[in-house]
Design goal:
CATH architecture of the domain at 146-383: 3-Layer(aba) Sandwich
Structural class: alpha/beta
Largest sheet: 8 strands, mixed
Shape: globular
CATH topology of the domain at 146-383: Rossmann fold
Strand content: 5-15%
Bound molecules: adenosine-5'-triphosphate
C-alpha cells in the first residue's frame, strides 16, 4: 500500500482538525475591531460569503478592545521560545471568519508594505491541479511509511538547542498558518521541520542540512511567516518608491525562486503577509509593480535583487529574516561575491541583528566555514548524513561508452514506455553537461518519437517556464536539462532521473537525483559512467554504499584505482556514516588561529579543487 506524508492525511484528518482547532491556537486568535470606533469593518470580497460558524475563532482574550492597529504583545514568549522579533501570541489577522478587524484578510497588513485593502488576495490553492493526479497516481507503485523517517539520525550542535516537536500543533504557528498547513495536506512535520522550526522560532540562526525532498522549504518559510505575523509592522513609506521587505529568501535559480514563491504564498495565504518574487529574465516592470503593492517576504535570485537594490527600489534596512536556500550553492565561487555584496555591503542589518537561516542537502566543510561569516551563534542541524542521498531512490550506474549513450537511453525509455500506464510515460529527467548537448539530445529524442523538451541557460525565460510546465503536466514527459534544473525543483511525478552525462561534483549528483524520491515517495536514478568520469568513482561508490545501493564490481575497481588521485570535492568527507559534520567540531578547521573558529583561512579558493561545477552565474540567475 502506498503510504507517504501526503497520503497519511486521509487517515489523519482528525488530528489535523485538532491542530487547527486546538484551544491554544484559538486563544491566540485576535479579532481586531475596526479603527475609528463605530465604522463598519471592511470585509474583503473573498471573505464576504464565508460562513463564520464553524471556522470562526473565539475572540482572543489577548486582543483586548483596542487590539487592532497596535503592535502585538511582544513581551510574552511563545511556547517555542519566541524570536528576537517578538515572542508574543500570534494574531491571526486573515483567518476566515476573523474578518471583523481592520481589513479582514489584509489585517494589520492592509497598509503600504502589506496587502492593500483594495486588493483581492488570489487563492494560491485554486491552481492546485488534481486532474492529472489520477493518471499519475497509478504510476507510483510504492512508497514508504512516513514513520521510517523516525529512525533517521539527527545531529545538532551549538548552544542551548531548542527541543524538537512532534506535531505542528505543538508549535505556536498561529491559526491562519495552521489552516494553510492543513490545506497543503501536511499532517505532521518532516524530521527537518521538527527540528528546524523550533530553532528558528526560538530566534536562533541556523545552518540546516537535510536530504533532498524532505521539506526544507516549509522549514524556513513557517518561522518567517509566523515571526512576521507576530512581530511589529514594517515601516510605512509614503511617497517613496523604495520598498522595505522584512524577510529575504535567496535561491540560485529563477525556477526555484518561482517555486518557493508559489509555496510561500500558500503558507502565507490570509495571514496578511505578502510574498513577492523577483528574478532575472522576466520584465522588471511587472516585478516593480508587484513590489509597490507591498512586500513582507521577498523571494529573489541574487542578480535581479542587486539590480533592484542599485535602482533603490528595494532596501534591506528592515530585514529581520534572511534565508539562503541551496546555501552551499549560493556561497560557492559562482555566487559568493554577489551574496557578500547583498548581505554585507548594502544596508542589511548585520548578523546578530537579523536572523539567518541556511538550508541545503549538501554542505561541504569549506562552504560551512564561509557561511559562518553570515551567522551569529548558530545551531548546526544535520538530518541524515550531510550530503547523503535518500534511501528512497534506487540508484544504478551503467558503464556506457560515450558513443553508446543514445542507444542506451533509447532502451531505457522504451522500457519505461512499455511499463507506462494509460499509454503515458513516467516523467523522466535527463541531465546533460552542456546547453548545446541538451538541445541536440532533445532534437534527437523528438525525431525518434519521444516527446521531449529542454531547460537550460540559453533558452529564454519564457521558454524555460513553458518547458517546465509542459513537463510537469506530463504533456512532454521527458525533460533534458543542464544543472539549472538540478537543485530544489519539486516536480511530484518524476519517476526517473538519468545522468546521461555525470557531473564532476558528487554534491551535484546528489541534488540531481534528488529530483525524484521526494516527500516519502520512491524514485529511480540511472547514471551513465565511463572513463571520463573516473574522478567521481570513489565518491559515487561511497555515496551508494551509504544509501544501501548495490555497487557494481567494475565501479568498485574504478574507485580503488582512483582512490589516490581524487581530491577536494570528488571525495566524500566525514568518513563515518554519522557524526562530526559541523565544521566547528572538525580539528582540521580549528588549526591555525584566526576567525571565529580558529580557522586559518586561505585553503579555500580557486585552488581548492572546487572548480568542478559551473560558475556561470548568468545561466543560473
Ligand atoms: N510535513 C509535510 N508533509 C507532507 N508533505 C510535505 C511536508 N513538508 C513538505 N512536504 C512536501 O514535500 C515535498 C518536498 O519538499 P521541499 O521541496 O521543501 O523539499 P526540499 O527538502 O527543499 O528539497 P530539495 O533539497 O530538493 O530542495 C514538497 O512537495 C512538499 O510540499
Amino acid at each position: 500500500m502506498r503510504t507517504s506524508w501526503a497520503d497519511a492525511v486521509a487517515t489523519a484528518d482528525s488530528s489535523a482538525a485538532a491542530t487547527s482547532a486546538s484551544p491554544s491556537n484559538v486563544a491566540a486568535v485576535s479579532v481586531a475591531p475596526s479603527r475609528g470606533g463605530g465604522r463598519a469593518a471592511y470585509v474583503p470580497p473573498h471573505l464576504r460569503n464565508r460562513q463564520s460558524s464553524s471556522e470562526s475563532p473565539a475572540p482572543s482574550p489577548a486582543a483586548g478592545p483596542s487590539g487592532a492597529g497596535q503592535p502585538p504583545a511582544f513581551a510574552a514568549p511563545s511556547p517555542a521560545g519566541g524570536s528576537r522579533w517578538g515572542g508574543g501570541p500570534i494574531r491571526d489577522v486573515g483567518r476566515p471568519g476573523s474578518a471583523g478587524g481592520r481589513g479582514g484578510g489584509g489585517g494589520r497588513h492592509s497598509r503600504i508594505g502589506g496587502w492593500d485593502r483594495r486588493e483581492r488576495e488570489a487563492n494560491p490553492f485554486s491552481n492546485d491541479d488534481d486532474t492529472t493526479e489520477a493518471d499519475f497516481d497509478s504510476q507510483e507503485t510504492s512508497g514508504i511509511n512516513f514513520d521510517a523517517y523516525e529512525d533517521i539520525p539527527v545531529e545538532t550542535s551549538g548552544e542551548n538547542v531548542p527541543p524538537p516537536v512532534n506535531t505542528f500543533a505543538e508549535i505556536d504557528l498561529g491559526d491562519a498558518l495552521n489552516e494553510n498547513i492543513r490545506r497543503c495536506k501536511y499532517v505532521k512535520p518532516t524530521p527537518v521541520q521538527r527540528h528546524a522550526i523550533p530553532i528558528s522560532l526560538g530566534g536562533r540562526d541556523l545552518m540546516a542540512c537535510a536530504q533532498t525532498g524532505s521539506g526544507k522549504t516549509a522549514a524556513f518559510c513557517f518561522p518567517i511567516i509566523s515571526g512576521i505575523m507576530r512581530g511589529p509592522s514594517g515601516p510605512r513609506q509614503r511617497g517613496s518608491r523604495t520598498v522595505y521587505p522584512l524577510a529575504l529568501i535567496l535561491s540560485p535559480t529563477r525556477e526555484l525562486s518561482i517555486q518557493i514563491h508559489e509555496e510561500a504564498r500558500k503558507f502565507a495565504y490570509q495571514t496578511g503577509v505578502r510574498v513577492v518574487v523577483a528574478y532575472g529574465g522576466a520584465p522588471i516592470n511587472q516585478q516593480l509593480r508587484d513590489l509597490e503593492r507591498g512586500v513582507e517576504i521577498l523571494v529573489a535570485t541574487p542578480g535581479r535583487l542587486v539590480d533592484l537594490l542599485e535602482r533603490a527600489r528595494v532596501s534591506l534596512q528592515h530585514i529581520r529574516y534572511l534565508a539562503l536556500d541551496e546555501a552551499d550553492r549560493m556561497l560557492d565561487m559562482g555566487f559568493e561575491p554577489q551574496i557578500r555584496r547583498i548581505v554585507e555591503q548594502m544596508d542589511m542589518p548585520p548578523r546578530g541583528q537579523r536572523q539567518t537561516m541556511l538550508f541545503s542537502a549538501t554542505f561541504p566543510k569549506e562552504i560551512q566555514r564561509l557561511a559562518s561569516d553570515f551567522l551569529n551563534n548558530y545551531i548546526f542541524l544535520a538530518v541524515g548524513r550531510v550530503g547523503s542521498s535518500t534511501d528512497l531512490i534506487v540508484q544504478r550506474v551503467e558503464f556506457v561508452p560515450e558513443s553508446d549513450k543514445r542507444s542506451y537511453l533509447m532502451d531505457l525509455l522504451h522500457g519505461q514506455r512499455d511499463t507506462g500506464v494509460h499509454g503515458k510515460q513516467a516523467l523522466t529527467l535527463v541531465f546533460v553537461e552542456t546547453k548545446r548537448g541538451a538541445d541536440s539530445l532533445e532534437h534527437w529524442l523528438c525525431m525518434n518519437g519521444f516527446p521531449a523538451t529542454t531547460i537550460h541557460g540559453d533558452r529564454t525565460q519564457q521558454e524555460r517556464e513553458h518547458a517546465l510546465r509542459s513537463f510537469k503536466s506530463g504533456a512532454t514527459p521527458i525533460l533534458v536539462a543542464t544543472d539549472v534544473a538540478a537543485r530544489g525543483l519539486d516536480i511530484p511525478h518524476v519517476a526517473h532521473v538519468i545522468n546521461f552525462d555525470l557531473p564532476n561534483d558528487i554534491d551535484d549528483y546528489v541534488h540531481r537525483i534528488g529530483r525524484t524520491g521526494r516527500a516519502g515517495k520512491t524514485g529511480r536514478a540511472t547514471a551513465f559512467f565511463n572513463e571520463s568520469n573516473s574522478s567521481l568513482a570513489r565518491a559515487l561508490t561511497e555515496l551508494m554504499q551509504e544509501s544501501n545501493q548495490e555497487v557494481p564490481d567494475w565501479l568498485a575497481r574504478f574507485s580503488t584505482a582512483h582512490s589516490y588521485g581524487g581530491s577536494g570535492r570528488h571525495r566524500r568527507t566525514g568518513g563515518a556514516r554519522f557524526g562530526g559534520r559541523d565544521f566547528r567540531r572538525d580539528s582540521t578547521f580549528s588549526r591555525g588561529g584566526g576567525g571565529d573558529y580558529g580557522y586559518g583561512g586561505g585553503s579555500y579558493g580557486a585552488s581548492s579543487g572546487y572548480g568542478g561545477s559551473s560558475v556561470a552565474t548568468s545561466a543560473w540567475d
